[in-house]
Design the sequence.
């Protein structure tokens, strides 16, 4: 139905505003794409590094991280860029989450660089940053599985300090599957009502 | 009753502004689909909103096709908020 260029009653005005503001709502299911993607890539990188350290005794055990994380970053950028163009609208919520995760993603690279330069094990710091990103997302979306994921990473970041570095990789892989991948998969099944 | 903003007090322009309030940006075709307006009418209404400095229109090309992207300005947001406030005041909400 085409809208007319005619004045409205106050009731009609508010009804129309309510209807059209609701139109550009944020899609939680589409947001879940990057959560699921990194929920697969992070455990994969951690397990590959574990394998390269324990079984292959390789000096290049760190290599899965830059390769898989850069790939994930590029895939996410392409996916969301194409999605925005296809839908013809970019909601403010989508802009917020995209900005949060782009900044968060770049901060992982910064943390990796800083920990490398200072020769410090990065895993607890990475988990702390993940706790922030996932916890904030869970609170902003009012979505408990993500919020609990954030709490889990908060605890695991502390636990990892007391574990041997190689075992931290296994704990990290497991915590990402529980606190990141599973909430991401659940999010893909959400109705578009956020 | 307070004087209502005549630019916003029309179905189609209010719908456009409502969409833009919850969107960082929207493309011309998206607005056309959501409002059900013809291209000519939508263009006319967008120009009216632009002249009032409520929206910013950016024209570009994508795959050799023209792409028109629309964003709300800070003045537009302020005008919209004042309009809603005036409506609520009128309805005693």
Sequence:
């Amino acid at each position: 139905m085409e809208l007319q260029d005619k004045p409205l009653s106050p009731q009609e005005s508010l009804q129309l505003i309510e209807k059209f503001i609701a139109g550009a709502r944020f899609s939680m299911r589409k947001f879940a794409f990057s959560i699921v993607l990194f929920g697969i890539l992070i455990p994969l990188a951690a397990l590959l590094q574990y394998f390269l350290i324990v079984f292959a005794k390789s000096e290049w055990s760190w290599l899965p991280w830059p390769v898989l994380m850069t790939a994930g970053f590029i895939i996410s950028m392409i996916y969301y860029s194409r999605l925005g163009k296809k839908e013809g609208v970019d909601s403010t919520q989508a802009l917020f989450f995209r900005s949060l995760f782009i900044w968060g993603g770049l901060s992982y690279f910064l943390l990796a660089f800083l920990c490398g330069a200072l020769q410090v094990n990065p895993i607890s710091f990475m988990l702390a940053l993940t706790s922030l990103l996932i916890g904030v997302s869970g609170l902003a979306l009012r979505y408990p599985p993500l919020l609990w994921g954030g709490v889990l990473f908060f605890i695991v970041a502390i636990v990892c300090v007391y574990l041997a570095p190689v075992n931290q990789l296994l704990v990290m892989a497991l915590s990402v599957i529980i606190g990141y991948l599973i909430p991401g998969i659940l999010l893909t099944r959400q109705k578009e009502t956020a | 009753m307070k004087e209502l903003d005549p630019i916003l007090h029309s179905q189609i322009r209010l719908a456009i502004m409502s969409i833009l309030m919850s969107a960082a940006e929207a493309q011309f075709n998206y607005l056309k689909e959501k409002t059900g307006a013809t291209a000519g009418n939508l263009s006319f209404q967008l120009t009216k909103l632009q002249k009032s400095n409520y929206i910013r229109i950016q024209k570009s090309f994508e795959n050799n096709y023209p792409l028109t992207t629309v964003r709300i300005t800070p003045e537009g947001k302020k005008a919209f908020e004042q309009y809603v406030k005036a409506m609520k005041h009128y309805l005693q909400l």
